[in-house]
Amino acid sequence: MVKIATWNVNSIKARLPRVLEWLAEFQPDVALLQELKCVDDAFPTLEIGDAGYNVATAGQKTYNGVAILSKTPIDVELTELPGDESDEQARYIEALISPEGGNVIRVASIYLPNGNPTRDEDGSDSEKYRYKLRWMERLVSHAQELLKTEDAFVLGGDYNICETDDDVYNPAGFADDALCRPESRGLYRRLMHLGLTNAFRAFNTAPHTYSYWDYQRGAWPKDNGLLIDHLLLSPQAADRLTASGIDKTPRGKEKASDHTPVWCELDG
């Protein structure tokens, strides 16, 4: 059994005590982290190593940054999403993992652009939103290539997409938000229609179950949340899927990230 989780930690330095606590308690075999907000050399590799994990990072000063943690060695394949050599934002890392006693699995940690505000003063799409859509186009193209390999893979991360209105506490209020605009959802559907499976939704169909709660306006105690963190599985990985869920425990702790881990378990 392989337990894989994704978590936007919203600054690994600020959240290190929570991350170490969670690793010790939850014991994922693989953890995909986003929004590290530090360069590679500043990542707390020693502390994470002492917790029993190998580390691979694609970092950036102050913003973005993604990482893969694994109890077994990590064979890094990519540290950026293909398709735009001019893109300097650290939002993608991909590697092969060989779990103890299990089959090789390809994993990627993804921090998809937020895209807000979506419009300029004249009402046209903002550059931030156009960048989000371009990035998603590149992700769709890369997923198509990965599917040709017939590898078991998991594309996990903060997708900054609410797939449907069931994934947002206030659909009307988010109608023109980059997380919910039809163009964003349309590209997400294109990705899913390649044949991917949302691990959480495979076992959890109830609406209004969230992975993110803003720090403002009492969102956490009111459960005013969003489901924007996803684990998307290739058919070969989905065939091995046995369980999935959201671990809300870290969000209720002091100095918590505004996201909480989403996880799945695969056979062998």
What would you say this structure looks like, in words?
- This protein has 268 residues and is an alpha+beta fold.
- The chain has one domain (2-266): Endonuclease/exonuclease/phosphatase (Deoxyribonuclease I, Chain A, 4-Layer Sandwich).
- It contains seven helices and 14 strands.
- The chain has helices at residues 12-26, 45-50, 127-149, 182-192, 199-203, 219-222, 235-238; strands at residues 2-8, 30-34, 54-58, 66-70, 74-78, 92-97, 105-111, 153-158, 197-198, 212-213, 225-226, 229-233, 241-246, 262-266.
- Strand 1, helix 1 (12-26) and strand 2 (30-34) form a beta-alpha-beta unit.
- Helix 3 packs parallel to helix 4 (182-192).
- The mean pLDDT is 97.
CATH architecture descriptor: 4-Layer Sandwich
Pick out the low-confidence regions.
Answer: none
Q: For this structure, what is the CATH class? A: Alpha Beta
How many independent structural domains?
Answer: 1
Describe the strand arrangement of the main beta sheet, using strand numbers: 3-4-2-1-14-13
The percent of residues in helical segments reads 25-40%
CATH topology: Deoxyribonuclease I, Chain A
Q: What is the CATH superfamily classification?
A: Endonuclease/exonuclease/phosphatase
How would you spell out the order of helices and strands? EHEHEEEEEHEHEHEHEEHEE
Q: What's the Cα radius of gyration?
A: 17 Å
Strand content: 25-35%
Nearest-integer average pLDDT: 97
Structure annotation, total helices: 7
Quaternary structure of the protein = single chain
Q: Count the beta strands.
A: 14
Per-chain topology:
Layout: E1 2-8, H1 12-26, E2 30-34, H2 45-50, E3 54-58, E4 66-70, E5 74-78, E6 92-97, E7 105-111, H3 127-149, E8 153-158, H4 182-192, E9 197-198, H5 199-203, E10 212-213, H6 219-222, E11 225-226, E12 229-233, H7 235-238, E13 241-246, E14 262-266
Parallel strand pairs: 1-2, 7-8
Antiparallel strand pairs: 1-14, 2-4, 3-4, 5-6, 6-7, 8-12, 9-12, 10-11, 13-14
